[in-house]
Write a structure and sequence with these properties.
Layout (H helix, E strand, L loop, with lengths): L1 H10 L27 E4 L4 E6 L2 E7 L5 E10 L4 E13 L14 E9 L4 E2 L10 E4 L4 E11 L4 E13 L2 E13 L3
Antiparallel strand pairs: 1-4, 2-3, 3-11, 4-10, 5-9, 5-11, 6-7, 6-8, 6-10
Length: 186
């Protein structure tokens, strides 16, 4: 009997991960300048969807001149979430070397932060004073998956996501944005 039960458990489908990011794989049909679930940040001509076979992803192209561009999304936080698990794939090409005048964060990046009821970025418990969490790409790279867990401070209401090139010259590709809630334990 025990071996039958183990066999049934092995055949049972795994529970699906709840991804609360809207159109995180950028596969939803969008028209130029309109990205379902996302809002354009900066010059809309720098933001496009690109297909590579069956895969569709976001491209932010500031290779013509150093500038800011990208997409952002705000997700309403639920009170029973203590954190969110974050995952994204990114790659960068044609990145111009930083100059002495560039800020340390002038790079292709993925920002993720939580906002309180006044819209102020807030660090979660144990995160010190840095409410702006990010994955920075330092130079040209092939696809790489970045992961993190972002804790949610009491009173926070919004998770803000940003696929951005910030004050840099580069082509940055973004795909497979997954935001998985971590529910508080009773």
């Amino acid at each position: 009997m025990r071996s039958i039960l183990l066999a049934l458990v092995a055949l049972a489908p795994l529970a699906a991960v709840e991804n609360v990011a809207v159109n995180g794989d950028f596969s939803a049909k969008s028209s130029p300048g309109n990205f379902i679930g996302w809002t354009v940040w900066g010059d809309p001509k720098q933001v496009s969807l690109v297909s590579d076979g069956d895969n569709r992803f976001l491209r932010v192209d500031t290779s013509g001149k150093k500038s800011d561009g990208g997409l952002m999304q705000e997700i309403e936080l639920r009170p029973d979430w203590s954190a969110v698990k974050i995952s994204i794939r990114m790659r960068v090409s044609k990145m111009a070397p930083p100059t002495a005048d560039d800020k340390a964060f002038s790079r292709p990046l993925f920002h993720f932060l939580v906002l309180d009821s006044a819209g102020k970025p807030t660090a979660g418990p144990g995160e010190g004073q840095a409410p702006w969490s990010k994955f920075l790409v330092e130079g040209d790279s092939d696809w790489k998956t970045y992961t993190a867990v972002k804790t949610i401070a009491p009173g926070c209401e919004i998770l803000k996501l940003e696929c951005r090139v910030l004050g840099a010259q580069a082509i940055a590709d973004y795909d497979d944005v997954v935001i998985e809630p971590v529910v508080k334990q009773p």
